[in-house]
Amino acid sequence: MSEANTIQRETPHNQHPNVTAVQQRLDEAGIDSRIVLLDEGVHTAAAAAQALGVQVGQIANSLIFQIGDDEPLLILTSGAHRVDTAKVAAELGVPKLKRATPEFVREHTGQVIGGVAPVGHPKPVRTLLDRDLAQYDVIWAAGGIPQAVFPIGYAQLRAITGATEVDVA
Questions:
Q1: What does each C-alpha distance from 18 to 39, 66, 161 come to in angstroms?
Q2: What is the pTM (predicted TM-score) of this model?
Q3: What angle do CA 40, 112, 106 make, to 5 degrees?
């Protein structure tokens, strides 16, 4: 699939509310980025990279973990990495990180797994940012639904999320 055939269009005016929330947050932060819709949803970093014609490492996976009973933690990691949950838990000083259920993800982000954006949530979510993403001039992140993505620079992503930089792998 070529990039020209895969990237459908910039977001239309009658877009999904999650996409609207993410685009509004980008606009409010003064980030010149437009969400684009792909022909199909991309639920993995590999699928997103293939659809966009970029390296898998340029995809910012938005992964929600659970600390304790009800604290969400968003980790923005390079698509080339798997999060070492024991390492991150130790760095945070918590006993362990648990992968969140789809219901927990939706409750805290208003978005579904595969489309969780770094921003646009009902209320702020504590966020960590994989330092490895800094090597890329352009990073692609989810735009609130599985077929929506947007390009952003590392410094902009860090600033808009208020993320703490970490080594996650």
A1: 18, 22, 16
A2: 0.89
A3: 170
